[in-house]
């Protein structure tokens, strides 16, 4: 019996216009009414999910709700948005990661905490402006020294730029960065770097153990390369019809696309047995 469903957002719950279709909302409500806990599990930061959480009406339906954010690097309780679990990048991490962006005017180096979307040292690329808009954030310019000061709880770093540039950047530095960090090209224009050993799978495991929910009672729905570890952990892993090749291969099951009610169909088929 499925007791928890972890749902990715971009490319999964959200359609191409970054909206939640009616069928997804109805299926999520049906699942909650059936006693299943719904957990948004996303690469987005807190400020990037708040309007959607409100739109889904989850506050009213689940008084003890949780969200897994920043690709597993932070977990929030939703009734007061208290941070209950988080990792942190050190000053040395930030200094080291910044150096990979030096001399590359067309690639931004950004940092994320629970309230800010920081940009260090360069004019924002079109991709950075677009990404900040997607997560409802203002871009906050910050110096490297302030970023390293410890004033902010930085949970992850990101490199952003033109997809072709990011493909080259990822190919060049992937093997170097993965030695000391978790990393993923989460979108064609976003390369994310996280503290070592952290991902959606570890975030899901941490929350499930807190809630006393067994691995075999968990379902995960996603579409991207940052969903692979979540698929590996969940007993019921479901790839969207629009999923990447790696995500499709990693999942046990598949559903329709995010443009054709894939989340709703997966919930009703695998969790509600309809």
Question: How would you describe this structure in keywords?
Answer:
274 residues; eight-stranded mixed β-sheet; 2 domains; globular; 14 strands; alpha/beta
**Number of E strands:** 14
Question: CATH class of the largest domain, anyone?
Answer: Alpha Beta
Helix-strand category: alpha/beta
Give the oligomeric state of the chains in this entry, treating copies of one chain as homo and distinct chains as hetero: single chain
Over the alpha carbons, how many angstroms does the gyration radius reach?
18 Å
Number of alpha- plus pi-helical segments: 11
CATH superfamily of the largest domain: HAD superfamily/HAD-like
> Which runs of at least 5 residues are low in confidence (pLDDT < 50)?
none
* Tally of structural domains: 2
Physical arrangement of strands within the biggest beta sheet: 5-4-3-2-1-12-13-14
Shape: globular
CATH topology of the largest domain: Rossmann fold
Second CATH tier, the architecture of the largest domain? 3-Layer(aba) Sandwich
Keywords: Hydrolase
GO molecular function, one term: phosphatase activity
Organism: Leptotrichia trevisanii
Pfam family, one: Hydrolase_3
How would you describe this structure to a colleague?
The protein has helices at 22-33, 50-56, 58-61, 91-98, 126-134, 144-147, 163-177, 200-211, 228-233, 245-250, 262-271; strands at residues 4-7, 37-41, 66-69, 74-77, 83-86, 107-112, 117-120, 139-142, 156-161, 181-187, 190-195, 218-222, 236-239, 253-254. It has 2 domains: 4-86 and 198-272, Rossmann fold; 91-194, Hypothetical Protein, Haloacid Dehalogenase-like Hydrolase, Chain: A, domain 2. β7 (117-120), α5 (126-134) and β8 (139-142) form a beta-alpha-beta unit. With 274 residues, it is of the alpha/beta class. The radius of gyration is 18 Å and the shape is globular. An 8-stranded mixed β-sheet has the order 5-4-3-2-1-12-13-14, with helices on both faces. This is Cof family hydrolase. GO terms for molecular function: magnesium ion binding; phosphatase activity.
């Amino acid at each position: 019996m499925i007791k928890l469903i972890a749902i990715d957002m971009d490319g999964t719950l959200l359609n191409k216009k970054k909206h939640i279709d009616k069928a997804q909302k109805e299926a999520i409500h049906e699942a909650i009414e059936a006693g299943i806990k719904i957990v948004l599990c996303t690469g987005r930061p807190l400020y990037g999910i708040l309007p959607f959480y409100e739109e889904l009406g989850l506050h009213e339906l689940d008084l003890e709700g949780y969200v897994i954010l920043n690709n597993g690097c932070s977990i929030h309780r939703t009734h007061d948005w208290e941070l209950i679990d988080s990792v942190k990048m050190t000053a040395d991490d930030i200094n080291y990661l910044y150096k990979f962006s030096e001399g590359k005017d067309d690639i931004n180096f950004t940092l994320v905490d629970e309230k800010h979307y920081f940009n260090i040292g360069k004019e924002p690329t079109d991709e950075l402006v677009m990404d900040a808009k997607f997560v409802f954030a203002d871009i906050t310019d910050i110096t490297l020294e302030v970023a390293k000061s410890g004033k902010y709880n930085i949970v992850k770093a990101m490199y952003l730029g033109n997809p072709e540039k990011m493909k080259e950047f990822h190919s060049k530095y992937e093997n170097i960065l993965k030695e000391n960090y978790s990393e993923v090209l989460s979108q064609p224009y976003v390369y994310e770097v996280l503290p070592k050993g952290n991902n959606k799978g570890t975030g899901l495991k941490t929350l499930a153990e807190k809630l006393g929910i067994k691995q075999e009672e968990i379902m995960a729905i996603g579409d991207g390369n940052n969903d692979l570890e979540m698929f590996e952990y969940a007993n019921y892993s479901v790839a969207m019809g629009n999923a990447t090749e790696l995500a499709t291969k990693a999942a046990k099951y598949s559903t329709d696309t995010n443009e054709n009610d894939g989340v709703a169909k997966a919930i009703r088929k695998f969790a509600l047995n309809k």
